[in-house]
Every structure is written in structure tokens, then in C-alpha cells.
Amino acid sequence: MKRIFLRTAYDGTAYCGSQIQPELPTVEGTLANVLSELSDENVLLTGASRTDAGVHAYGNVYVFDTKLSIPPDRFKYAINTKLPPDIRVVESMEVPADFHPRHSVINKTYEYHIDDGFIELPFKERYSAHVRQKLDIEAMNEAAVLFIGEHDFTSFCSAKTEKEDHVRIIYNLNVTASSPSVYDNRDIVISITGNGFLYNMVRIIAGTLAEVGKGKIKPAEISEILSARDRTKAGPTLPPNGLFLLKIRYEDFEK
Amino acid sequence: MKRIFLRTAYDGTAYCGSQIQPELPTVEGTLANVLSELSDENVLLTGASRTDAGVHAYGNVYVFDTKLSIPPDRFKYAINTKLPPDIRVVESMEVPADFHPRHSVINKTYEYHIDDGFIELPFKERYSAHVRQKLDIEAMNEAAVLFIGEHDFTSFCSAKTEKEDHVRIIYNLNVTASSPSVYDNRDIVISITGNGFLYNMVRIIAGTLAEVGKGKIKPAEISEILSARDRTKAGPTLPPNGLFLLKIRYEDFEK
């Protein structure tokens, strides 16, 4: 028996989230079908991170046990030939039998993309939120640094969260904007790295930074919103399509 | 009666090309349906440039005549509210009654996108061709400059072309590559501006430059391929999904 680690990239548009659900298209369900077909038995996967419907990933992680004799780094090819093009295994390797994808995580990085063009371009629709107002990137970065460090993120998580401990560490948070090419559309990227994230946390931080970019919240108010521990003090939850789970880093095999 | 000019951006994935065809989804057909609904009569559009199934545009141009009293620059809003999100009118204005979108064109600019990552990412699939080999961008640019100027492009057009005159002027052709972000995937952009393009010309030039990038064609061979006036001497026609019609520039109202 070998334990195989899969790093997967997917376009979440067509899926009801990453986690398996009966009768619904999910990333995990699609991977499980392919693996069950390959190994002629019912394969169970364990995922590192639940992503909501419409959320994308460059590197979500799944682990499974198998008796298949395929060399571990060749699994990606075997699986990719049977996957639809909106899911790709980008890395496959063997990990120790006690490896769990939700343990020994050093940090996770997400990106949230916003397009502030006057008219939303068709190419951006799947992959960014649209804000019809030019955002002040400098003000957004002034606000962003106030999130860095250890904080109670109760104001920045959905009331639906099941987690009791709302303290997380943000290692890095910054905002960049590409130069507009054909029209005034910019790709504004909010990049965030932390030791863990609460339900909807990145989308609420992005929604709050967008309000700062519009001038509706002042950068200095971020500290007050954090201390308030009250979800109603922060900005709105931006839609799922702008969110990308970029990378999950693990102890041992990550530099 | 007013003549209205529409600059349109579209994701060509779901359409059987730009030009209207009975019973098939097309960009022109979709626009014509919306305009006919708005004006309660059968509206005919004249397009500037035919794009094939799967080809995208940031700025293809359509013109139509109307008795509607909507201010010309407001047409874009009226139309966009009724269009699917994969087509957007980005500019609308009144033009003289004798304006024709295929006349008085100064030049057109296209972009062709290639991803040379080891594994194609799901986000690139609709918008670039995938080449599983690292391309030599410097060699591609050495080849690109040899296309600039007035040439007979018989070697670089589909044998299906109906045009007899194959002489065109290329004003600019260059190749850039973005830095890879999460994996080794780069966005390689072939940007080309000319006074006119033959059938499949950009896709064949892109296919030939990709062969140069792989080392299969030497940059200096471009001049021989041009002189040969023989389609079989050039590289393959790359797929439609990497192609974007960026902009059409007109006399009079373009700087």
C-alpha cells in the first residue's frame, strides 16, 4: 500500500465546490471517479482544503492510498488523461503512511482578483470580481499591512463558521494592480499568506479592502474592525469566482 | 436614421464564429437578436472582421442603422443588459451615414497566446494554445522582425482563401513572455499589427514562430519561406482559442 499526494489545479466554475457530495459535480468526486476507474476499487480521497462552488485552485492537495504499481510521479499523467480539462494534477508523489494533508501545514496562500474596468470584459468574468469604480491601490496597501500578524478574525469570518478559535496569523498581505492593456481594465491582485483561514475569511478581507479602495472605509479603521470581533463591522463577502487557492506549504518536503 | 458603431469584446468559445449563420450560435446573430428586440424590427449588422469559431475579440466592430432615439453612447448599456456575459459592447457611437466598417481601416492588431508550461493549467485552456516544450523567445523575435514590411503572404495563408491579392504590410510583430508564477507556465504573447490579414494568417505565423521557438525552423529561414509562396513550407495552423482580435483602427476617429 502506498500513500499518494496529488497537487491539483482546477477551474471551479462547473463544480459545486471541492468536497465530495452525492449526485453533485465536485472536484473530489471527479478525482475519486477517475481513481476508482484506474484501480478498479472504490478510492477514498482526503482533501487539504474545502473550496466553495466557483472558487479556483492552482494547488489544492488530495491524498489517497493505493495498491496500484504506477510509479508515484507518473500518477499525474495516468489521472490527467481521464480528467476533464478543467481539473489537472500538477504534481504526484509518495508520502509517508501517516501523512495527513490537513496536518503539518506551514502556511497557505490565496489570491483574490478584482477587475475595476468600466465594463467587465468577457475573459475576466470567470476569474475576477468586477467593481465599477477605480480602486485606490495605495490606500488598500495601507490597510493590508494592518492585517499582518496574529489577530482574532471574528469580524472577518462568516457567522456560519464551526471553528471556535478565531485567532490566525497572517504572514503577508499585499495588493498589486497590472497596467490596463486594451481598455481601462486592471487585474487587481490581493495576495494573502497565513497559517490558516476561517470560513469566507479571504473573501471578506478582499471585500473590506475593496471598500478601502473606494474610500468608504479608511485604512486606519482596520484595527478597530479587528478589535470589534463583529462581522457586521467589516466589508461584504466578495463572490467566489475571484478566489484562487494558490499554494499549501508543508513541513518536511517544502523549502 | 442614425448609423451606430459598436466595438465589441467577446469570448468566442461558445460561438460558431462571429458571422451570422442560420440555426447556429454566432456573435453577430446574438447581437442582431438583441437589437431586433430593442427596436422591434429586424436589424441587420455589418461586421468589420470575420473571426472563426473559438477566436476571441477585445474590439471587433459592427455597424447598424436605427431609428431608435437612444443617445449613441448609451447604446452600449441598453445592449449589454440583454447580452450574455460572454459578449460585451465596450463602445458605441454615431458614425457618418456612409461609414463602412471594412473601409478606411488603418490597421488591425491581433494577439496570439501560447502557454509553454509542462502541464496546461485549466485557466489557460480557453485562451491559449499549449506547447509542451520551452520556447526560445529570443529566436522567435529574431524571426518575427523578418515578417515586418510588405510581403506576399501566400505561404502564410490557408489554401481556402478567396482573396487573390496576397500582399500585405506588417507594421509590427513581437513576442513577449510573462514570468511564470505558480508553476513553469508562461503567457507567451505574439502581437502583430498589419494593414490586413489573410485567412488563418495570424494562426500560421504563430505556428511558424512556435516552430522557431522549438528550434525546428531557424529564424533566417523565414525569408525563404516567404519567397517560396507555398503554404507547405510554413509551420502548422495553431488552434483558434489562442487568438484575440485586439483592435481595429480607423481613419478620422482614431489618433
How would you portray this structure in words?
Chain A is α+β, with helices and mostly antiparallel strands. Chain A contains five helices and ten strands; from the N terminus they run βαββαβββαβββααβ. The first copy, chain A, has helices spanning 27-39, 75-80, 137-144, 201-214, 221-228; strands at 2-10, 46-47, 56-66, 87-95, 105-115, 129-130, 149-152, 167-177, 187-194, 243-250. In chain A, strands 1, 2, 3, 4, 5, 6, 7, 8, 9 and 10 form a ten-stranded mixed beta sheet that branches. In chain A, strand 2 and strand 3 form a beta hairpin. The mean pLDDT of chain A is 95. At the A-B interface, strand 3 and strand 4 of A face strand 3 and strand 4 of B.
Please describe the structure with a list of short key phrases separated by commas or semicolons.
Alpha-Beta Plaits, homodimer, 255 residues, alpha+beta, 2 domains
Oligomeric form of this entry? homodimer
**CATH architecture descriptor name of the largest domain in chain A:** 2-Layer Sandwich
Helix content of chain A: 10-25%
Number of strands of chain A: 10
Q: What name does CATH use for the topology of the largest domain in chain A?
A: Alpha-Beta Plaits
Average per-residue pLDDT of chain A, rounded, comes to 95
Instruction: Specify the overall morphology of chain A.
Output: globular
What is the count of helical runs of chain A?
5
Low-confidence stretches of chain A: none
